[in-house]
């Protein structure tokens, strides 16, 4: 089970309406992204700078986040500069996202947790930060810390499907499929058409030897989205376990057709290779 990471989580970007105005560009020292230092202490929320010099914080945040995801080294530098100009929580959030792109997952997760715990903003925004912290902890191969962050987020927004699905992934990484199934059941009760949750629940049910339940979930998932490659990947695994190698191959070939460059396609290729070695 593996979700696409760094989902925006609902209304996370909406905090921008309350952000202060900060000064425009000024020269700042920029540390190497390979070993980033902690950002300087943010200026007070009132912002600062010369009269008439302002930054559109909403636009700056959107630009910074896009840069952090596409070119994380540049995003890190921009976030650091913006922090020194009073960018506050939004700049610090952008810096943490850039650190994930730089594969400094533990540092990113710690910063996101710290930001969520120190913020006075709405619960859903703090929960979004904790959701991203959990995703970063999973990338750091630390499902226990991921679970803790996601559980903290669920205390802020009980029953949030995104966090329940994330936490199910952490539980699955720890091979606790029974509790993962319980979280996925709860998520699907709130959002029954979530194709990702149906697919992940099929995986959990397979590990719990409920192949019929897994097949039912995959049928629902593919009825909702016939091009969902992860569901086809799981369907192939289920067919293989049921002793249907031809059907398994067709399912995995479907993954290659839909998304040939995806992680699911890589897994499908490996499974096809194993099937060719032992076609039983």
In short:
The protein has 280 residues and is mainly alpha-helical. The protein has helices spanning 57-70, 72-84, 88-101, 105-118, 123-139, 143-156, 161-173, 177-190, 195-207, 211-224, 229-241, 245-258, 263-277.
Lay out the secondary structure:
Elements: H1 57-70, H2 72-84, H3 88-101, H4 105-118, H5 123-139, H6 143-156, H7 161-173, H8 177-190, H9 195-207, H10 211-224, H11 229-241, H12 245-258, H13 263-277
Largest sheet features: none
Question: What is the CATH C-level name of the largest domain?
Answer: Mainly Alpha
Low-confidence stretches: 4-52
Overall number of domains: 3
Q: What coarse outline follows from CA principal-axis ratios?
A: elongated
Strand tally is: 0
**Fraction of residues in β-strands:** under 5%
User: Helix/strand-derived class?
Assistant: mainly alpha
Taking all Cα atoms into account, the compactness measure Rg is 21 Å
Output the helix-strand order. Answer: HHHHHHHHHHHHH
Kindly identify the CATH topology of the largest domain.
Serine Threonine Protein Phosphatase 5, Tetratricopeptide repeat
Report mean pLDDT, rounded to a whole number: 84
**Helix count, per DSSP?**
13
Distance linking N and C termini = 25 Å
Give the CATH architecture of the largest domain.
Alpha Horseshoe
């Amino acid at each position: 089970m593996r979700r696409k990471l760094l989902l925006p989580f609902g209304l996370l970007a909406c905090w921008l309406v309350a952000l202060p105005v900060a000064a425009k560009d000024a020269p700042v020292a920029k540390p190497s992204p390979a070993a980033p230092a902690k950002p300087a202490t943010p200026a007070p929320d009132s912002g600062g700078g010369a009269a008439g010099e302002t930054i559109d914080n909403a636009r700056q945040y959107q630009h910074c986040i896009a840069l952090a995801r596409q070119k994380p080294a540049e995003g890190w530098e921009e976030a650091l500069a913006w922090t020194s100009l009073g960018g506050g929580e939004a700049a610090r959030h952008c810096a943490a996202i850039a650190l994930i792109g730089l594969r400094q997952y533990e540092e990113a997760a710690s910063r996101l947790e710290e930001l969520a715990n120190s913020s006075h903003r709405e619960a859903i925004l703090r929960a979004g930060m904790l959701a991203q912290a959990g995703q970063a902890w999973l990338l750091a191969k630390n499902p226990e810390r991921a679970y803790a962050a996601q559980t903290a987020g669920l205390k802020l927004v009980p029953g949030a499907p995104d966090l329940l699905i994330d936490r199910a992934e952490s539980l699955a990484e720890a091979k606790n499929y029974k509790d993962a199934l319980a979280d996925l059941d709860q998520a699907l009760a709130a959002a029954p058409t979530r194709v990702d949750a149906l697919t992940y629940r099929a995986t959990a049910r397979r590990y719990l030897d409920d192949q019929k339940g897994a097949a039912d979930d995959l049928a629902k998932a593919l009825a909702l989205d016939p091009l969902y490659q992860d569901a086809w990947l799981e369907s192939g695994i289920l067919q293989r376990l049921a002793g249907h190698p031809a059907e398994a191959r067709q399912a995995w070939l479907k993954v290659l057709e839909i998304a040939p460059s995806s992680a699911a396609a890589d897994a499908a290729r490996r499974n096809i290779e194993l099937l060719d070695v032992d076609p039983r």
